[in-house]
Amino acid sequence: MISVQTADFDIAKLYQQMSNNQLNPNGYGAVVTFVGKVRDFNQQQQIGAMTLEHYPGMTEKSLEAIVEQTKARWPIGEPIIIHRVGELAPGDQIVYIGVVSAHRKAAFEACEFLIDYLKIKAPFWKKEQTETGYQWVDARENDTTAADRWSQGNH
Amino acid sequence: MISVQTADFDIAKLYQQMSNNQLNPNGYGAVVTFVGKVRDFNQQQQIGAMTLEHYPGMTEKSLEAIVEQTKARWPIGEPIIIHRVGELAPGDQIVYIGVVSAHRKAAFEACEFLIDYLKIKAPFWKKEQTETGYQWVDARENDTTAADRWSQGNH
Amino acid sequence: MLTIVFFAQTRELVACDNIELEFNSSLSALETIRSQLASKGDKWDLALQQDKLLVAVNQEMSPWDTVIKDGDEVAFFPPVTGG
Amino acid sequence: MLTIVFFAQTRELVACDNIELEFNSSLSALETIRSQLASKGDKWDLALQQDKLLVAVNQEMSPWDTVIKDGDEVAFFPPVTGG
Q1: Which of A103, A119, B18, B152 reaches 20 to 30 Å from B120, CA-CA?
Q2: Which of A78-82, A140-144, B86-90, C14-18 has the lowest mean pLDDT?
Q3: Which of A76, A96, A90 is nearest to A34 (CA)?
Q4: Do A11 and B10 touch (CB under 8 A)?
Q5: Do the Cβ atoms of B104 and A112 come within 8 Å?
Q6: Chain C residues with beta carbon closer than 8 angstroms to that of A58
Q7: Which residues, including other chains, have CB under 8 Å from residue C1's CB and lie 6 or more apart?
Q8: Distance from CA of A132 to the nearest CA of C (A)
Q9: Residues of D in contact with B95 (CB under 8 A)
Q10: Which chain C residues are within 8 Å of A62, Cβ to Cβ?
Q11: How confident is the model at residue A44 (pLDDT cuts 50, 70, 90)?
């Protein structure tokens, strides 16, 4: 399940839904989830609020492509990806990634792969309110490095 | 927070509690959780029920030692580890590991390290009910390999 | 007709969400589309500097040598920062 | 006095959760404790085969050359399988 939404998400409902979405939920012994939240500091600057912009249509397509890539690589069940857009404040939830697998290694790797690829492939842009006004967040070199590592065969 | 208990756990409450446990919850942008559940199949055998035995006292001490080791290695907030003991059925939750960090890489690695080390260091033993009666689960070679990888400096 | 869309800094600088361009064969090259738009003014030129600019064709991230055809949707935007 | 405790298969085979042993200097070697217990009968011998047996001293996983002193708690058990 993929959803791009302004509304907040309820991790307990998503956890239940992830189990309900599987043909055989009791075949999956490992559940790994990632939640990304708005921090109150970024690059030494205090953050008051944040706006998340996206490219409707392309966002969903790119997330579906990342999910297909993940399912081709690891033996996982149907994952859940939720990404919020619009106005957010420090502490707010931004993104949810939930993965189930029979064993934990695949669940951890697939979950980390999903967020690493989302970070460089999915058309979302963050604008932060700092003491000096609103500014677009710069892409981090680290995110490219994190994603690259999956194509180097050391995992 | 570490707890060894017979009662089930509520992932939504633990998620909230993990945030409450931090001095500065809005400094943590990444939350990674792992839940281990009883599968209905293991080593080609159907599982009816399971009993989890532990060594009271030593279990808590060993989990505390693993938490200290993790905190010395990654910049994470206070993690949560819950492990159930007693009678469990397929689909039941066994273990919860929750980790927060400023960035996702540390949160993923610390969470996986915690469960990898719990698997080989914490005194819990599983006994499964199969078609041919109750039998103790054999330790998996894989678990030793998973834990060893953290001492080989390839992370 | 081509639909050209902009996002984030790029959208703010050109002060416009999207525009339409009459298609002709010279516009089959992304670089031609980019430079034609960049010539619309200083802000457009700044917004469309190829340095870190990304491009999507029909909602798929695409290399700069992608061949554009009539009816395509072309998007220009900076590196993504979601998650 | 030493307290000896058993868990899982080991506990089931010896059919006892724990026993106490009067301490004497020969019992400062874990192997002496193990072999003295193993001599209590076939089930004890089977349960305490050193092959995959683990040992904890005062609730800490310990190597077989650990020196035992009066008052210690020594535990014997198979490889752990939690999580």
Answers
A1: B18
A2: A140-144
A3: A96
A4: no
A5: yes
A6: 56, 59-60, 75
A7: C20, C21, C22, C23, C70, C71
A8: 17
A9: 82-83
A10: 59-61
A11: confident
**Cβ of residue B123 closer than 8 Å to a chain A Cβ:** no
Three-state DSSP class for B99? strand
Q: What is the mean pLDDT of residues C38-51?
A: 95
Taking CB atoms and an 8 Å cutoff, what residues of chain A touch B115? 104
CATH number of C2-77: 3.10.20.30
Would you call A26 and B40 a contact, using CB atoms and an 8 Å cutoff? yes
pTM exceeds cut of 0.90: yes
Which of helix, strand or coil describes residue A103? coil
Cα separation of D80 and B123, whole Å? Answer: 6
Q: Is B8 exposed, middle or buried (0-12, 13-18, 19+ CB in 10 A)?
A: exposed
At B38-85, the pLDDT tens digits run 998 877 788 889 999 999 999 999 999 999 999 999 999 999 999 999
Taking CA atoms, B106 is separated from A154, B129, C49, in Å, by 18, 38, 35
- Asked if C8 and A125 come within 8 Å (Cβ–Cβ), the reply is yes
Phi and psi, residue A39, nearest 5°: -90, 160
Q: From the CB of residue D69, how many other CB atoms can be counted at a distance below 10 Å?
A: 12
* Cβ density class B125-152: b for 16+ within 10 Å, e for less: bbbbbbeeeeebbebeeebeebbeebee
Neighbours of chain D (3+ CB pairs under 8 A): B
Place of tokens 């998400």: A9
CA atoms within 13 A on the CB side of B58: 24
| Residues C72 and C57 sit within 8 Å (Cβ to Cβ) | yes
Q: Which chains border A (3 or more CB–CB pairs < 8 Å)?
A: B, C
* CA angle at B51 for the pair B94 and D55, rounded to the nearest 5°: 90
Nearest residue of chain A to residue C11 (CA atoms): A53
Considering CB atoms only, which of A24, A29, A34 is closest to B104?
A: A34
Every domain of chain D and the residues it spans = 2-77
Per-residue pLDDT, averaged over B29-33, amounts to 97
Give the Cα separation of A83 and A63 in Å (integer).
10
Give me the residue from B57, B115, B123 closest to D80, CB to CB: B123
Check residue B132 and give its pLDDT: 87
CA distance D7 to chain B (A): 7
